[in-house]
Design brief:
Layout lengths: L3 E10 L12 E11 L3 E14 L4 E2 L7 H13 L6 E4 L1 H25 L1
């Protein structure tokens, strides 16, 4: 299963790009992991961040960050609020839960009936 991430927040940074030294191309993106299966949809608490330069089309890894980029990142990280972790059960899950409950109740009734 492939990991899916939904973009929660994008911030344009006015810092110099370590690759091309442009001041108008840096974009900080915060993403949150999203899981979807046949049975449920879930937003997890796992957060991923990227800094990308739109001018030179390169990803700026933390090793390349300058002190200014690091300070701005820490500020934005503190200001960032993620979506609450949640799980949404799909229709198939509810059907299976209903079937399991029905089988358990039928088994209990059958046991009680046979003992009488």
């Amino acid at each position: 299963m492939e990991d899916k991430y939904i973009t929660i927040k994008e911030v344009a940074l006015n810092n110099n790009c370590p690759e091309c030294y442009s001041t108008d191309g840096l974009l900080l993106t915060f993403k949150q992991k999203f899981v979807e299966t046949k049975f449920y949809k879930s937003i997890t608490s796992e957060i991923k961040h990227d800094i990308e330069c739109k001018t030179c089309n390169s990803i700026i890894y933390p090793v390349q960050w300058t002190d200014e980029i690091e300070r701005v990142f820490e500020y934005q990280k503190k200001a960032f609020t993620s979506k609450k972790s949640s799980i949404y059960l799909k229709k198939l899950s509810w059907i299976l839960i209903g079937i399991i409950i029905a089988v358990v109740i039928a088994t209990i009734i059958l046991i009680i009936y046979l003992r009488l």
